[in-house]
From TrEMBL:
This is (S)-ureidoglycine--glyoxylate transaminase. The gene is pucG. It comes from Zhongshania aliphaticivorans. It comes from the Bacteria. Belongs to the class-V pyridoxal-phosphate-dependent aminotransferase family. It is an enzyme of class 2 (transferase). Transmembrane segments: none annotated. InterPro entries: Aminotrans_V_dom (IPR000192), PyrdxlP-dep_Trfase (IPR015424), PyrdxlP-dep_Trfase_major (IPR015421), PyrdxlP-dep_Trfase_small (IPR015422), SP_NH2Trfase/AEP_transaminase (IPR024169). GO terms for biological process: glycine biosynthetic process, by transamination of glyoxylate. Its EC number is 2.6.1.112.
Amino acid sequence: MAISSFHPPVRTLMGPGPSDVHPRILSALGRPTLGHLDPLFVGMMDETKELLKYAFQTRNELTLPISAPGSAGMEACFVNLVEPGDKVLVCVNGVFGNRMIENVTRCGATAVRVDFPWGSAVEPAAVEAALKEHGDVKVLAFVHAETSTGALSDAQALCGLAKKYKALSIVDAVTSMGGVPLLVDEWQADAVYSGSQKCLSCTPGLSPVTFSDAAVAAIKARQHPVQSWFLDMNLILGYWGEGGKRAYHHTAPVNALYGLHESLVMLQEEGLENAWQRHASMHNALAAGLDVLGIQFVVEEGQRLPQLNSVYIPDGVDDATTRQFLLAKYDLEIGAGLGDLAGKVWRIGLMGYSARMENITLLLKALAAAMTEQGYQCSGEQAVTAAEAALK
């Protein structure tokens, strides 16, 4: 069988990630490939680190993009900071807290699990009670923006508790970076990881990470080798460290890093505060339109993540049928529920370049059409009118 070149259709991506990739970033990906030790590329690496420091709001020297997706950023934080026999307190309020538990276990450490209802934020009071009960916790780990539910937790309070009880903090910021305030230094977060494909609107496959001085000291004081050779920060620093001379560690994804660099330049141009406000404004517009359609949010308003909107599927409307309709008729993608919420919710992303009014208009009209075909009574035009009014 002869296989020809692959030419994907143009989709509008409004699921939990990846988000729409900005044309400027797509253009950057196609620039001439340089060697991963080329002096010009090394200079761009240094710029990328500085831009990431801005995005994280940190001065941490150990700030860089892992050459793999956000899941590898998560693993990098755990395998570098957690050793066999350590005790790690993990806050679980969705799927990605469970993945943290899995990482702790694979490190040979003990996971102390603190559960919260899916769709709610992590409660600092309950976390403090657990820290008091388990006095020898080395690491407190939590998800800042839980992508499976759309709940936003108080990272500042949780990082403060880690410091109070002399623990390190590991923070999942995969969905929060660039979409809501993320102030690594001010909050005294120790190890934070994110992803390129969410609010940065880059292609999937890179994971920005940052480690505080306290985290670096813990890495240097390890009694056991880091269990992952590829993710060992002691080795990666030889390639991503300061200065013109770099030691070969792995062949970096050169063109993907062009894209990340461009996305971070665009974030700098827009300004972090403006990016946060844009995501909040688009969320308010979407919420107004969904309310007209009779669609309710999973997360209460005060704990809601603007860039990831988890909503209940109305009675009489089928999950898979609706999503297939949107993809076939409108080239529009939204996300299904995960875990306990599978088949019960949709996850609607408003991340990065996807956080635009034209996308909201398309989504509201498409959802109304899909649900009307299933006998659900609603008006897409009225929903769009409400969304536009909220934006003004």
